[in-house]
Amino acid sequence: MVIVCGSANSWIVNTLINNHGGLYGRLTHEIKLYPFNLSECEAVLKDSGITYSRYDIAQCYMILGGIPYYYSFFRPDYSVAQNIDMLFFSKQAKLKGEYRRLFKSLFRNPDYPMDLTTHLAVKRSGFTRKELLEELKLKDGSVFKDALDALMASDFVEKYVPFGKGSRETVYKLTDPFCLFYLHFINDKTGLDEDFWQKNLNSQSINVWRGFAFENVCFNHIKQIKRALEIGGVSSKQSAWISPGDGKQTGTQIDLIIERRDNVFNMCEIKFYNKSFSVSKSYYEKVLGRIELLGEMIPSNATVHSTLITTFGLTRNEYSGAFVKVITLDDLFCRE
Fold first, then answer.
1. pLDDT in tens, 99-137
2. Which of 42, 71, 111, 146 is most exposed, with minimal Cβ within 10 Å?
3. How far apart are CA 140 and CA 158, in angstroms?
4. Does residue 208 sit in the same domain as residue 229?
5. Looking at the structure, do residues 291 and 320 belong to the same domain, yes or no?
């Protein structure tokens, strides 16, 4: 019996799992270790004597993802912002060079998958295979396929079929929080202050980034969202939807659509706020417009349930009826 374990997923997949030589058909079992979820990261921090609010832990997850090794560097006497500065922006930052080390440890030829990852980070909704090949001027073949497969095997990239599209329009999306954070704030940046995160904590750029990063956290916690919707036993699939619009109609984007076999479509709006979310009149009208637009695209026997995924819930007012279901941060911390 031979047991092989390690972080070099591309080598394991290509050399052992997809081996066409003497090892073909001899694999007994695969055990894939996934990144930790929010609840498990909370347990890791508590075990280290660190007590953060779930709001702060969610922000840690936006940056470090579910890799417990990274959390082991946290200092209990530091705030989240202080720890992030220590790990990424200080002179002796432990994780400043981690991005390149990570790819070199995972891939035999790291430059190719790094180029793919860098480009995937440009558009948060992702790219089709055709778009990637055309924009990066790459040849379609085994090298491209193996690199993309290795990125998915390493949980850096996920693929999904956008709502209303066919399998030929499958989109590849970068979902690894660490890569997204590094490429957004650190890669090719020079002259950053050692306390960059603390100084810019409430800046517009970081607030905008938090919104996108929280969407990514939600995509990484689909099981918890389905449990909160009480549809854990219902067959379903999830995707995002972007309608570019035309001369007559403005473009529309829906963060997350959960298409269920019980003829319900959960249209999810995702909002990261430091307090309870309040629906304004203009936003209420926007949500109703999206419901109407989505209703025109689904079967006549199906219905749309507008769903809000946010941090601290919904403030009740005359427009809060825009949502029939509200999912909070506590729901995302639910154990599977």
1. 999 888 888 788 889 999 999 999 888 999 999 999 888
2. 111
3. 19
4. no
5. yes
Q: Tell me the pTM.
A: 0.91
Backbone angles phi, psi at 208, to 5 degrees: -65, -45
Q: Which residues, including other chains, have CB under 8 Å from residue 164's CB and lie 6 or more apart? A: 241, 297
Domain with 261 in it: 225-332
Region of residue 245 (phi > 0: left; psi between -120 and 50: alpha; otherwise: beta): left
- Cα dihedral across residues 128, 100, 106, 42: positive or negative: negative
Sequence-distant (≥ 6) Cβ neighbours of residue 255 within 8 angstroms: 215, 218, 240, 268, 269, 270
Q: 296: burial class by Cβ within 10 Å (0-12, 13-18, 19+)?
A: exposed
Task: Give the H/E segment covering residue 237.
Answer: strand 236-243
Angle at CA of residue 134, ends 12 and 102, nearest 5° = 35
202 and 230 together in one domain: no
Cα(63)–Cα(178) distance, integer angstroms = 5
| Same structural domain, 274 and 239 | yes
Is the residue at 265 inside a domain? yes
Report the domain count for the chain.
2
Q: Which residues pair with 281 in a beta bridge?
A: none
